[in-house]
Design brief:
This protein has 241 residues and is α/β, with parallel strands linked by helices. The chain has eight helices and twelve strands. The strands form two sheets. The protein has a seven-stranded mixed β-sheet with strand order 1-2-3-4-5-6-7. A five-stranded mixed β-sheet has the order 8-9-10-11-12. One zinc ion binds next to loops.
């Protein structure tokens, strides 16, 4: 299973009818303070757990789950993860943390039609996504975890509480579903999404020095061309109103 760099492990999503978000594990193994980013899809939780085992990561070292955002394809795998790692804290941006604590599932499903589909497909009950959030993240937070330093960027537009995690020393960006490889960006038609807001978030990302782009879906990029985020923004700008 791929170790992308020292301190970043990658478990690729395995899409089915619904996409399965990629899972990343960040932190130097010697720190015994690892963070799991985005569990992914409910039916892929077992695969993610098995992959973590195969990588030789000790479950006890995983201290928390950090959400890039709380859409179903990123969050629903948490049920299986919590069975194996019940002590893991849940860290979510404050804009999506409070709804999650109150059982407001509009962000999780994005649209009512999708809720019905998931409830039927996976046997999920109404209100299953009410959960305690241990830390409510804010843009500007600096997370010193796993022997690394990650800046939290609040980048709404795809969802209200989307975050990017940026490690300046390694030039790594984990942007969730805000930007992907191949000049693609996240959709901006679901609950809480807003094209004009997404444009501002992409502008914010374009100011970062990024070499390694680790999105929530599709390809990862280990050697991002200079100006990639600016170019992506320029292509999409006419639609982001
Ligand atoms: Zn999403
Ligand atoms: Zn996604």
């Amino acid at each position: 299973m791929p170790k992308l760099t020292e301190g970043i492990y990658f478990i690729p999503g395995r899409d089915e009818m619904i996409p399965d978000a990629h899972t990343y594990i960040i932190g130097y193994p010697s720190s015994k303070d690892l963070s799991l980013i985005d569990p992914g899809l409910i039916s892929r939780g077992r695969y993610k757990i098995d992959s973590i085992k195969e990588m030789g990561i000790t479950f006890e070292d995983i201290k928390r789950v950090i959400m890039s955002h709380t859409h179903f394809d990123h969050l629903s795998g948490i049920f299986q993860i919590k069975e194996e790692i019940p002590w893991a804290e849940l860290w979510v941006h404050e804009a999506e943390a409070s709804p999650l604590e109150q059982g407001d599932e509009r962000t999780v499903y994005g649209m009512e039609m999708f809720r019905k589909m998931c409830e039927i497909e996976y046997g999920i009950k109404y209100g299953a996504f009410r959960m305690k959030v241990h830390r409510k993240l804010k843009g500007g937070d600096v997370l010193k975890i796993g022997g690394m330093c990650w800046e939290v960027l609040h980048i709404p537009g795809h969802s209200l509480g989307s975050i990017g995690l940026h490690c300046p020393s390694e030039k790594v960006l984990i942007p969730g579903d805000v930007i992907y490889a191949d000049y693609a960006i996240g959709r901006f038609d679901l609950f809480g999404a807003d094209g004009a807001v997404l444009k501002e978030s992409l502008k914010k990302l374009s100011e970062l020095d990024v070499k390694i782009l680790l999105p929530g879906h599709n390809r990862t990029v280990m050697n991002l061309p200079i100006g990639y985020i600016q170019k992506t923004l320029a292509q999409w700008e006419p639609y982001l109103v």
